[in-house]
Structures are given as C-alpha cells and as structure tokens.
Amino acid sequence: MIIVFLTPALICYVLVFLYPSIRTTIMSFFAVESVSDPVSTWQFHGLGNYAKLFHTAIFRQAMRNIANIWLVGGAGVMVVALFFAVSLTNGMKGVRFFRSIIYLPNVVSAIAMGTMWINYVYNSSYGFLHNVFASLGLQKLSETLWTGPGLLFWSMLVAYCFGMVGYHMLIFMASIEQIPKDYTEAAHIEGANALQRFFFITLPFLRGCFRTNIVMWTVFTVGFFVWGQLFSPVNLSNATVAPMNYMYEIVFGSSASTATVRDSGAGAAIGVIMMIIVIMAFAATNLIVKNDDVEL
Amino acid sequence: MKKQVRSLEHHTQARLIPSYILIIGWVAFTFILIGWVIFASLSTSQEIFSDHMFGFESGFHFENYARAWKTQKVSLYFMNSVLYTAVSCSMIILISAPAAYVLSRFRFKGNLVIQNLIASALGIPAIMIVMPLFGLVSRMRLTNNRWLLIFLYIAMNVPFTTFFLLAFFKSLSTTYEEAAYIDGCSPMGTFWRIMFPLVQPGIITVTVFNFITIWNEYFMSMIFANKTQVRPVSVGLFNMIQAMRYTGDWGGMFASVVIVFMPTFLLYIFLSEQIIQGVTAGAIKG
Asked: For a Cys-Cys bond, which of A107, B261, B281, B284 suits B268, CB 3.0-4.6 Å?
C-alpha cells in the first residue's frame, strides 16, 4: 500500500523536479546551443558559462536589478507588511475585511494587475498619479513619465511590491496571533508603551516568522519574470531585466531580437546561480535566526 | 470597571488612528485600481482617454465584452483554462492525498528523506527545471499538447499539495484506523472511506489554492503553449494586451482583463477566509 500510494507522487517529483534539476546543473558546465540538442553534442566547458555570464553587461545588470528588488523592495514590503500585521492584530475593527482586501492582489493574475498599473496608475495623461498630483496643484509631478526610462525600474518595483505586501502580512499576522497574550498584557501593566512592547516582546517572537518571510521573498525574487516582461514587453531593457528574462531570451529566444545568440549552457548556469541564491538565503536565515526555542 | 474598559478601548482606537488612515488608504487604492478597470471595460476608447470617463455619457458598453469574448478569442483561452484547472486540480488531489497519508502514518525507510525532498521542491525555481523539460518535450514532439500542459500543472503542484495535506493527516487521531481495522476494513478502504473524507476541509482549501495558482500560471504555459489553440488565459491575455495596443481597442482590452481575473476574484470573495488560512498554514510550516 505504501508503494501504491506513494509512487504517482514520486514519479511527478522525479520527472519534474529531480531529473531536470540535475540535468540543468550538469548542462551548466557544458557548451550547449539549443536545449533539445542531444547530450552527445555537448562540449565540456568547465566554469566557462559562469565566467561568460559575469562578463556580460546585461546579465550583471539583471543581477543588480534583482539585488535591488530583494533589498530595497524586500525592506519596503517587510516594513509595510509588519506594520499592517501589528496594527490589524492590535484591536482594529474590520480586521477580516481589511486583511482580505490587502491580500486580494495575490489572487488576481499578475498580467491583469500589471496592466492596471501600467495603463491606469502610471499613465501620464489620465492616470491615477497624474490626477492626484494635478488636483494637489503639483503640475510638475503630475507630468512625470512614470514608465519613462529614468523611473521604469522603480515604478515596476512599487507595482510589484504593492501586490506582495498581503502575502507577507498574512504570515506575520498568523505568528503574532500565536504569541501568548499574557506577555503583552503583563508588559502593559508594568508600564511598557506600545513601541517597547513591539520591540521587546513581539519582535523576538517573530524570529521564526522572519525566516519564513525572507526565504519566501528570496524565492519570489529569483522567480521575478512577469513584471519585467510587462514593463518592457518587446525587448530586454536594462531597467527591467531580471536573470529569468535574460535566460528566456538566450534559451528560448523571444522573436523581437534576432541579435542574441542562443546559449542554453549559459541559461542553465543562470538557473544554477538562482538555485544557489535560494539555498544561501535558506542557510543564512537558519544561521542567523535560530528557530529552536520558539516554534511558532 | 466597565467604564474603565471602555475608556481603554477608546484609547486603543485613538492610538490606532494612523494605522486606520494608512490601511484605509491602501484598501481604497486597491478598490480604485480594480474599479477603474471595470469602469474602463464598459467605456469606449475615447472615453478612457478623457478625464470624464466615469460619466458613462454614452452608456455602458457591454459590447466590449462580447467583442473580447468572440473576436479576441478570450472564449478559447477561457475554455482551455477551465479544462486545465479542472482536470489538474482533481488529479493533484488524487495523487497527493494518498502520498500525504502514507507519509504521515507509516514508518518506513526513507520516509523522512521523501518528506524533505518534497519540501525542497517548494524552493526549486522554475528556471532550474524548465530547460531539460523543454528539451525532453520537444524531442518527444509534445509541445502545444494539452495533456502535456495538464501533466506539468499536476506535477508542479503535487509537492506543495502533499506537503499541505501531510499536516492535516498528522492531526487526525489513529483511533479511526484502529476502529476500522477491528471492523474488518482493509487499509485501502480505510483510507478512501474514512480518512480521505475526514481531511475534506484541507482538500477544499488546497484545491482553491491550486486553482488560483494554475489559473494565473504564466511562465511554464508561455514556454510550453505557444500556439493560440492551446493557450491558457494568462498567456492569451498577455498576447492580447500586446496586440490591442496596436489596434487601439482599449475597451476590449480591459474587458478581457476583467474576464480573466473574474473567476479567481469571485472565488476569493466567497472563500477568502479559507484561502487566508491556507496561506498561513502552508507557509508557517515551511
């Protein structure tokens, strides 16, 4: 019975996760032009693919972009999510309503969300930001080209992070709700103010939860793709390219630019680099945030 | 005493005013965003570009929807997605529930290893697995095959679902199985007739989750379905948006956006509590 019940799930795992991961790792050390090339045509290339990638300007730009997304976007998302989570668990009214609306963008297709941002919020002649700034009399700000070359990356980042806040907020909220109320009440009676209670009671309890959030944020950042494509639909642009967009370009070759050479070996190397980033984030958070004393 | 409690309550509410302002602002913005698309989908292109769109001076233009549905092939993408999500969501449960049950109940060599492998799949990025899969599939000439897409959707969501249901099975008491055993029920029968129905709440939550994931899945679908005939809504929508920029049919484009996000949106309105519990249950253990 064990075998019968487990086999289908294991087949799925081996076929779609295990085998491809191993093959991608091996492929990253070989010079391979097209993904469908048979193994016999592969040529051993050592770390050549990796070296080549880090000498490619657009790949370095892509790495810089996800570093910015991870650090700046991540800090912003975590601060907002934590603030919302603490507020909502602190006796606010209408918690269920607010909570579900804040999470809503996660449920809607990213393509639909992106379309709303690009065509409405950021539109410089009738968009939301244009109207808000115009009604405040800030003529100059209202004429800003939010999706122009200078601001494209940051506009994309804000739109992306807006949707992500809900997910991380829910995780924070679930952990905060599990903190025994006695601690905060005792502190309250002893005269600790709201900030002290937050920093000395709530935050230490949330260590495990920060670990989850940071690992998940890293997984999402590494998979950053759709938003980059939405904000620069035709060609790769320095402002929006992420490693996954570049991989798509050199492995599957989007129709717009015939100039790029197909290089699946390098594509595989990008995959491995992304995987290493996730593993590093996981290991680092395990080291920094010891989760053994508080199991939440 | 009662008065004191009330004043404390007033005090709390007063202290929360900044939080209220920010959260209400955030929520209002979300409403404006979605409301605007719905309004835009009912307007003509000229009205969208003007400042007085909300007046609906020329009435509601439901023909945008008809046009998107018929001429822009939204109906085709929509039906594809309905087929893909329905088949994969049910298959995922049929594969994951037995696996989760076995992993939660039986001690055998490699049990923990398998559990860890399954958990690790949640962190493997799509970029790591897509190339060999595409190589394999194109050598087998299976690109643009509906069943292949469904298989991918299933296999990619089995680890998460198994992982999710594992916790549910673990929380069930073993007395059910003992009673069934004494009454002469076979282990298989015990699972399908007793244990499987008992985890129904978990199955519903995770299925809603899988539905949303598969409905919105973009990357894999884009690579494995590049023919119009087999495209799901996410890829179809992206292509429509790119095309409509040039045709200038903005009303139709926003109508397509609304049609595509409506199913998950409606599902969320009715099941938001369950979905929210699912998010936290799935993530905290991971």
From this structure: A107
